[in-house]
């Protein structure tokens, strides 16, 4: 507790103890305040108590926050405290908040209302991207980040309610995510067979493991552990391009590592790839890189290179423009779920704890499954295989009745 000592009628000294030094002496911080004349005499005790509480927070936590703090200041401190987000995710939050600050950054937390959020959304809808209006889904992503900041303020008992959660939002139409059919996957594998070794290995692992681009770019040889008839791959890092910082290596998106088993056939392919990379390094009189995906000089390949290269491959084999590198991750999840692998296992393999999010985001019914569903429904209605309606017999009955 802070100690308060009155020095004059409106002058007080506040002292806060903050532990002890190694020699046993107490660590104390003191601050002298003068109560403004605008504060009435009977309100002075409450004013001083509030100042003492804020000073104690400042001493013990290194900063003090209250509901009168402006949104921008609180949001910047919130960003600095975050450690569970991947660097690229945190960078995107920072970029979005920089867009938001001119509209609500100067408003104190205690004065933020749902109408401020609605006005913010209206202003964001006026923005354009590459000459086109910003989509409603993008606009609502900005609000999601604002809501995360305000939820943190509510959790710390600075706010009673989160005004961003009190806004009525229009329904957004989710973009339909297409996944390759089995015939298209075979066509893609044929195209990859003609690609340079590092590209072929990268896209094959993307198909086989469902890993994100950054996770594959961060793979090291030490991440593989050989078992009796399989290979254990540990995913614990990610490399991504962060605006203003370049390529940054950090933890996975959810901050947790996971393990993926690879079959015997893939073991042979990875061994062959390792042997080839080792031979290239020996010929160039250099050490083998710790990382899997390096160029002929042993230098790490930029993550964007894999994205651009795959788009060219897609174009060469006539794939839709909607397909991208992340499409391979969608295919991985969809294929496993359709083959009967349980949801929790698939969620663990791709690094998701929420199976509901997994199904909503990654599970896409393919044409073959839709046709199978139609046949299943027919079997349910007519288990004996007879037609639903005998139209010929019905016509005969109608003629007799006439």
Total of DSSP H or I helical runs spanning 4+ residues: 15
Number-wise, the strands total 10
Low-confidence stretches: none
Major pleated sheet: 3 strands, antiparallel
- Walk across the major sheet and give the strand order: 1-2-3
Secondary-structure map with pairings?
Blueprint: E1 3-6, E2 11-20, E3 26-34, H1 44-61, H2 71-81, H3 87-104, H4 114-125, E4 128-129, E5 132-133, H5 136-155, H6 182-192, H7 197-209, H8 213-217, E6 224-226, E7 231-235, E8 238-242, E9 246-250, E10 258-262, H9 264-283, H10 303-316, H11 326-338, H12 343-350, H13 355-362, H14 367-381, H15 391-401
Antiparallel strand pairs: 1-2, 2-3, 4-5, 6-7, 7-10, 8-9
Describe this structure in words.
The structure is a single chain. With 402 residues, the protein is an alpha+beta fold. It has four domains: 3-61, no CATH class; 71-166, DNA polymerase, domain 1, CATH 1.10.150; 182-353, hpI Integrase, Chain A (Orthogonal Bundle), CATH 1.10.443.10; 365-402, no CATH class. It is built from 15 helices and ten strands. It has helices spanning 44-61, 71-81, 87-104, 114-125, 136-155, 182-192, 197-209, 213-217, 264-283, 303-316, 326-338, 343-350, 355-362, 367-381, 391-401, and strands at 3-6, 11-20, 26-34, 128-129, 132-133, 224-226, 231-235, 238-242, 246-250, 258-262. The strands form four sheets. Strands 1-2-3 form a three-stranded antiparallel beta sheet, covered by helices on one side. Helix 2 packs antiparallel against helix 3 (87-104). The protein is extended, with a radius of gyration of 31 Å.
